Amino acid sequence: MKPVLLIHPCDTEILARLHAASFADLWSAEWIARLMAQPGTYAYLAGGEAGGFVLARVAGDEAEILTLAVVPAARRRGVGTVLLQAAAERAHLMGAKTVFLEVAQANEAAKALYIRLGFTEIARRRGYYRDQSGNKGDAIILNVKLPLN
Ligand SMILES: CC(C)(COP(=O)(O)OP(=O)(O)OC[C@H]1O[C@@H](n2cnc3c(N)ncnc32)[C@H](O)[C@@H]1OP(=O)(O)O)[C@@H](O)C(=O)NCCC(=O)NCCS
Description:
This protein has 149 residues and is α+β, with helices and mostly antiparallel strands. The chain has helices at 12-20, 29-36, 79-93, 108-116, and strands at 4-6, 41-46, 52-59, 62-70, 98-104, 120-130, 136-145. It has a 7-stranded mixed beta sheet with strand order 1-2-3-4-5-7-6. A hairpin with a 5-residue loop joins strand 6 and strand 7. The longest helix is centred in the middle third of the chain and has 15 residues, at 79-93. The two termini are 20 Å apart. The mean pLDDT is 95. Coenzyme A is lined by residues 22, 68-70, 75-81, 103, 107-110, 112-113, 116.
């Protein structure tokens, strides 16, 4: 599945719906459009509304994954992997030497995906997240050098 690059704030309704299918905190189409209007920010969409997207930003020699989401029905088919690889490849072309992201300690699926792509833990924010039951959990900061292996 080849991801489609979105540089300008278009198709943000689709991205907002994909985000809502994966996360409890809503990111509106307007909010995503505002993020995408910032310099160095881009998204990749794979599989349209039935797939997933990644939103990333490059600033200087660092890139950050702002969000990544694959709809539940399309998971474990490599969509998350191709999205992250595409985002990392573009970040490298834009001059980034490393990619950072943040993940909840409890998010086993995402952690497994990131570790498989070579990300390693560099820092931890204790008690940064609160789950739907109100329990606190750590946020883990991961990074990887570019290009990905
Ligand atoms: C995390 C997420 C993006 C992964 O997307 P995906 O398309 O299912 O990922 P892939 O199919 O590319 O998975 C690649 C590898 O990651 C690991 N992985 C992915 N999901 C996993 C799970 N539920 N449990 C264990 N390992 C998992 C596996 O090693 C997998 O390879 P395999 O299927 O050959 O075993 C998806 O689960 C999702 O959208 N989750 C909700 C939103 C989210 O948590 N986003 C990340 C926020 S930091």
